[in-house]
Specification:
NAD-dependent epimerase/dehydratase family protein; alpha/beta; NAD(P)-bd_dom_sf; NAD(P)-dependent_oxidoreduct
Length: 323
């Protein structure tokens, strides 16, 4: 039985990944802040270690085949790059050093699609497309890209595989995190939507992609875990159809989003935390679309529809009284 060490096990992707690993008969050690945060069932092949990303985990890595590093700082309201760098870069370097010292076979780093250049519906972005604006101005995306570049420069025994998920929707969204996008339209009489769009993927499929990357991922390669390219209007219409509602849909003018971004920049200069910023508002105005051809061909992932992802997310929220 292969043993995997996982960080970020209590988040959306982490929970789905641990559940999948156990289904595939992997033995899992999960680093968590609190064991009580685990949302899944107990399992004889699942062991929790309480600590943080800077803990000494070397004693747990002696028989580990793969580390899956999912934990990250994903907040959009932090004020400076160092706030992201500490978790997304420094902690990654720390974990990598321990993995290499323990001669772990593979280090699987979960990054983001936004470290790669996006495209349009006819020509979506791929693993070979370099990052560009507005994500070159995103502290989160830049910290992830810095970690990617560091890992790819390493030349030691432990193999490096990087996965780049797009926007994930699904069950086990405890906070919720990306599931807030569902709440944007769910049970609303008016739905205001940006004119842009993005790529969406079922969180369960992204978790499947991580396991496929353990088995089939090539050293030094990146893999987009992506599925459907949708405008925000198209996504919200899916939410409306699935929930049986028919709200009034109103487009938000790009100039309004740009104005909100300028306000956010001003607030940030005053050291006030806010999700508003020029780069965040610009991201809502563009269609940042991606291709999943490489993950289909090399990893062998079979993607589910985003309708199914939305249904699973909504059922989870209802079951856990989060709506």
């Amino acid at each position: 039985m292969k043993k995997v060490f996982v960080t970020g096990a209590t988040g959306l992707l982490g929970a789905n990944t641990v559940i999948k690993l156990l289904q595939y008969d992997y033995s899992v050690i999960a680093l968590v802040r609190k064991k009580s945060s685990w949302m899944g069932e107990e399992n004889k092949n699942l062991r929790f270690i309480e600590g943080d990303l800077f803990s000494d985990i070397s004693e747990y890595l002696q028989e580990v085949d793969t580390i899956i590093h999912i934990a990250a700082e994903t907040s959009q309201d932090l004020l400076c790059y160092e706030d992201y760098k500490k978790i997304n870069y420094d902690a990654t370097v720390h974990l990598w050093a321990q993995a290499a010292a323990a001669e772990v076979e593979k280090f699987l780093f979960v990054s983001t699609a936004n470290t790669l250049g996006y495209g349009k519906s006819g020509v979506p972005g791929s693993e070979n497309t370099p990052q560009f604006c507005p994500f070159t101005h995103s502290y989160y995306a830049q910290s992830k890209l810095e970690a990617e570049n560091y890992l790819l420069q390493q030349n030691r025994g432990t193999k490096i595989v990087i996965v780049n998920p797009t926007f994930m929707i699904g069950a086990y969204d405890r906070k919720p995190s990306s599931g807030k996008m569902v709440f944007w339209a769910w049970e609303k009489k008016l739905v205001f939507y940006p004119k842009g769009g993005k790529n969406f993927v079922h969180a369960e499929d992204a978790a499947e992609g991580l396991i496929k990357a353990i088995e089939n991922g090539k050293n030094g390669e990146k893999y987009l875990l992506a599925n459907e390219n949708l405008t925000y209007k198209e996504f919200f219409k899916k939410v409306n159809t699935i929930t049986g509602q028919d709200p009034i849909m109103i487009a938000i003018p790009n100039r309004v989003l740009s104005f909100l971004g300028w306000i956010g920049d001003g607030l940030r200069k005053l050291k006030i935390k806010t999700n508003l910023s020029t780069s965040n508002m610009k991201a809502l105005q563009i269609c940042n679309y991606y291709s999943h051809q490489k993950s289909l061909k090399e990893l062998g992932i079979q993607y589910q529809s985003i309708d199914k992802a939305i249904e699973d997310a909504i059922q989870y929220f209802i079951k856990n009284n989060k709506h």
